[in-house]
Write a structure and sequence with these properties.
One of its GO terms (molecular function) is uracil DNA N-glycosylase activity. The chain is of the alpha/beta class. The protein has eleven helices and seven strands. 44% of the residues are buried. The N terminus is likely disordered.
Amino acid sequence: MTAGMQSKAPELSALQMAWLQEIGMDKRMLARYAADAGPFPEAAGRPAARQRDTPPIRGDKPTPAAGAQPAAPGLVRAAAVLAGQQGTAGAPGPAGAAVKKPAADVSAPPAAAPRDWEALQAHIASCEVCGLHAGRSQAVFGTGAVQSPEWMVVGEAPGEHDDRVGLPFQGKPGLLLQAMLASIGVLPESAVFFTNLIKCRPLGNRTPKPEEIAACLPYLQRQIALLKPRRILVLGKLAAQALLGSDADLEQLRGRVHHIRSETGEDIALVATYHPASLLLRPQHKADAWQDLNLARSIAPA
């Protein structure tokens, strides 16, 4: 686990100001930031990641093609809002890259977890290791770019809407998440994979039990090993604690860069922050979440 320096207040472009006002950040807080900034480090000069060229799935049983996942419907609105925007400007990454320390080890998946992407997806769809399978409509495997994505976004558990359509981050939390990511230049065409720690919805959206987390964590570990993401953004205390092997509070885990080691030996940077569902209930944390997003965006190439 690595503790980095706290990020300083970044400068904002007019487009970022609009996005941050959209997600509900106080205008008085935004007023202290300067408006002119250079192009996003990751957006400038880098071709967009290839995504599956099919419309969003609307039925109850999505069936993605082998090796690809459908674009999350919750992220489509950002593309419409930003249509026609060229050369998006944004803020430079915060100063103070984290100094590496020994990485957390998340390399103990059970032998039952398949080592092939499509086989893993089928295995999770029929999983009955814990009791959550009895109340699900379907398992929520994840969606997005599957070839070494720039970002892997990990939430805690599917909600009711996620369970119905089989895709993560649907409904209001998904719309808030897309606005948060767009505010730092991560757009629908960016190379991002979205998933959750828990693959089946806990009925009543209750907190997952320790045995349910233990049953699902190996699947997430295997996804990380197969995807080889450049960075992981973890949303919520449970997912952060599970991946970091820590019982620390989210306030102790956020605001810094950690590193975990995948089961295949990759050292992957990880930043934890608030889940968008939590931010809808506690909007006072949105400014802190945005600072965490900028910290994650500032992570240099390996």
